[in-house]
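Morning F.,

Quick status update on the modeling queue. The single chain you submitted on Monday has been processed. Sequence for confirmation:
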Amino acid sequence: MTSFDWSVIWAAMPSLMEGTKLTIQITLLGLIGGTIIGFLTGVITTYVRVQVTGRSVLAAVATLIVLYILARLSSWIDASLPDGTPGWAWPLIQLLIAIAVLWRLARFIPIALSFLSQVYILVIRGTPIVVQVMFIYFAVPLIFGWRIEAVPAAIFTLIINSGAYIAEIVRGALQSVPKGLKEAGEAMGLPFWKILAYIIGPVALRRMIPAMGNQCIISLKDSSLFIVIGVAELTRQGQEIIASNFRSVEIWGAVAVIYLILTGFIALTLKFVEHRTQIV
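Structure tokens below.
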């Protein structure tokens, strides 16, 4: 039976701390971006209601086909321009046409955004985060020719993944606020953004804190899955250390304790925030 050797942990601590710093960086940036996307998406899906039916899906598919045809037509026109045409002429014409179309169809933009938001939430919540990060890291460069480094790919994946779940947290919190508050703000003549910021928002924020805390902890633990693309976060550092010294009990124990410290800090911080914002 192998005895527990504390010196192994102390020797591995510098590498584990490097992995911990990268884990915190990925989680923090991912949650900041995910919160922004989730808030905007949650507000849109709450207040711009679009039923995802067979008819709306067919309309969306038809729109995508039209956009694809227009993109191919634009490329053909660009390649067919006579010699001597200024390079800025056709892009400027495209920009003016796009502005004119958006202005003419402005009333449909919120509906389109709501539909796309619901599709985004459906796709992200319906696929594992490992599949998402591998698609972004391996497939996107093949499709678009973009080279994506491992850490940016991990951060971007965590942004879009947490954003979908945070959007549902925001939507649930907003829908739990009594409709009378919104109607009272409208009766006072306040614009929607002021109603959201000063009346509905503070009430909804208190109700989403527990769920947001849970999402923060989940995102922190999900960062360990980025080991599949070689990100040197905490779990990857532990794996590499074990490959060199074969002391799995000590190293995995240390990794588990570090994760417990991080998740405990998040839980205590959000408990403090929840206590400070509760209505007595």
